[in-house]
Design a protein that fits this description.
The complex is a heterodimer of chains A (188) and B (194). Chain A has 188 residues and is an all-alpha fold. Chain A is 62% helix and 0% strand. Chain A is flat, with a radius of gyration of 17 Å. Chain B is of the alpha+beta class. In chain B, strand 1 (107-113) and strand 2 form a beta hairpin. The chains are: A mainly alpha (188), B alpha+beta (194).
Chain lengths: 188, 194
């Protein structure tokens, strides 16, 4: 990875990527693993998860001009939003969404066959829908803590509240999710 | 080429492919922008709507750099005047033209602050063409596009169904963090996706 960008926020990486592709590579390095895990847990298929990860970052590149920094410089909520849409679009279309990665020409640069598994309705099962049902303050706090792995002080900064209040929101949100998720393939 | 040491071999390979594709895309953008300037601003033919929107933002910044000396005084006043001249129905048209999923939704807008803020209600819910899944529109932001096919502002969904929008024109859309400064004024020949 390029050390030049290690201190940059995600937002400044996206801005810098207009001039330097290494900036976008740094962003990829930060989030690829988590995005891939997100897809693998839902699809249960490594190859499908890899294709959807490619699609997520290809879409992120193509719509980077529309990124708006609303989380203290972090691109995590934006990236996971793109990931979630790619997953839901795949389920709706009955085939893995690959339009953006094809446009960018990523497929021909990879030495592997595309996934052949068909999207399944169960891919959408899990915490996402329950997360959406949480009150917005709890939902945002849980997202920042669980998906973005931010410290409570950072969450407080992003949400404009105190660290203690952020901790309470995360606790309440997770408690509500646990109450619903008695049987799930994902543990928050 | 960047090194993705911490990633699995598969993700590292994908990272390399992505880096290569992004570098090629940037090179194409620069080349196209350069060609455009050389022939007096003629725009290269776009290969996709999404890429065209991203490229046009870059081109716009270049054009601004070239003409800033002339426009530095005239633009702010002209922009405000142009926005103030827009009727609510023109704002409604701009919302529908900015995003593929909003085409044919027949928005109706009312003025909150003339030339700045408008409240818009769609007659029918957005389609699923490139937008969020049904009932997941809350806080989604979309650009609005003027009759001259340039981004003139942006709108934010106020409900999950995507039928209720708050739209801002010009700099107000940037202030509201709906669109970036570089995107305002970008050439957008067709509704965007995503």
């Amino acid at each position: 990875m390029n050390d030049l960008f290690t201190d940059h926020t995600d937002a400044s990486l996206l801005a810098a990527s207009e001039r330097d592709p290494n900036a976008f590579a740094e962003l990829y390095g930060r989030y690829a693993e988590r995005i891939h895990v997100y897809f693998r847990r839902r699809t249960g298929d490594d190859s499908a998860a890899l294709d959807l990860t490619a699609e997520t970052f290809a879409q992120a590149w193509l719509v980077r001009g529309r990124f708006a920094d609303r989380a203290g410089g972090s691109a995590a909520p934006w990236l996971f939003g793109i990931a979630r849409n790619a997953l839901l679009m795949s389920i709706r279309r009955g085939s893995i969404e690959r339009r953006a990665s094809q446009r960018l020409g990523i497929r021909e640069r990879l030495d592997r066959e595309p996934a052949t598994v068909a999207p399944d309705d169960t891919w959408a099962d899990g915490a996402d829908e329950l997360l959406e049902a949480l009150p917005p303050s709890q939902r945002d706090a849980v997202r920042l803590r669980v998906l973005e792995e931010l410290e409570y002080e950072q969450i407080a900064g992003a949400l404009g509240t105190s660290s203690a209040a952020a901790r309470v929101r995360v606790h309440r949100g997770l408690s509500a999710l646990r109450a619903h998720l008695s049987v799930t393939k994902e543990t928050l | 080429m960047p090194m993705f040491d911490r990633l699995s071999p598969e993700l590292a390979e994908l990272g390399d492919a992505l880096h290569s594709a992004v570098a090629a895309d940037l090179a194409r953008t620069r080349s196209a922008a350069g060609a455009g300037l050389a022939v007096g601003g003629a725009r290269p033919r776009s290969r996709s709507r999404l890429r065209a929107m991203a490229r046009s933002a870059t081109r716009t910044r270049r054009r601004i750099a070239v003409t800033v000396a002339v426009l530095v005084v005239a633009v702010p006043g002209a922009a405000v005047a142009a926005n103030a001249l827009l009727s609510p129905s023109q704002v409604a048209g701009g919302l529908a033209q900015g995003t593929l999923a909003l085409l044919g939704t027949h928005p109706t807008c009312t003025t909150v602050q003339a030339g700045v803020e408008y409240h818009c209600v769609l007659q029918s819910a957005p389609s699923n063409q490139g937008g969020p899944a049904a009932n997941q529109w809350l806080n989604t932001v979309e650009p609005s596009v003027g009759a001259d096919k340039h981004v003139n502002g942006g709108c934010r969904a106020q409900n999950q169904a995507g039928t209720d929008w708050e739209c801002y024109l010009g700099q107000a859309a940037v202030t509201q963090k709906i669109i970036g400064q570089g995107f305002l004024g970008a050439y957008s020949p067709s509704p965007g996706v995503g």
